[in-house]
Amino acid sequence: MIVTHTSTNPAPLSPHTVDVLITISSCLRHVGEEARATESSLKALVSDLEDRVGELEDESRMRQGREAAWEERLRREAAWEERLRRLEEADTSGGDGKKRKKKKEDLDVSKDERVHCISGHEIRHPAVACQAA
Q: What top-level branch of life does the organism fall under (predicted)?
């Protein structure tokens, strides 16, 4: 096979030069194939990482929601404890040891305060059960 280069010198290339050029061309083809395979692998890896980041973000939002619900539950329990403490204090206040009559506002409890829905379970506060009795 005689190969000529396209410069102004139309001299034929030596067989050794042709072999070197064929080897270089083959190497470049192989490098191109490897680059495409690497690019494809990297795209798959990026896609997997993006999916995992999305999962972690979802888990984080769910955890934050659970923490907020727990904090709200603790806040409500603290409010109940304070209300119960005030009711007990009101029962024994007066100095003479006699129980005083409870005021209506001490006993007024909204339905939302009586029944807490947490994860689909009804929880009734003990103070409400005592008041209902």
A: Eukaryota
Segments making up each domain of the chain, as ranges:
15-132
Give buried/exposed letters for 72-105 (b at 16+ CB in 10 A, else e).
eeeebeeebeebeeeeeeeeeeeeeeeeeeeeee
| Helix, coil or strand: residue 5 | coil
Q: Give the per-residue pLDDT at 6.
A: 59
The pLDDT of residue 33 is above 90: yes
Question: CB of 17 within 8 A of CB of 25?
Answer: no
pTM: 0.44
Mean of all residue pLDDT scores within the chain: 78
Which residue do the tokens 């003990």 mark?
A: 126
Contact 77, 127 (CB under 8 A): no
Question: In a 10 Å sphere around its CB, with 0-12 CB exposed, 13-18 middle and 19+ buried, how is residue 127 labelled?
Answer: middle
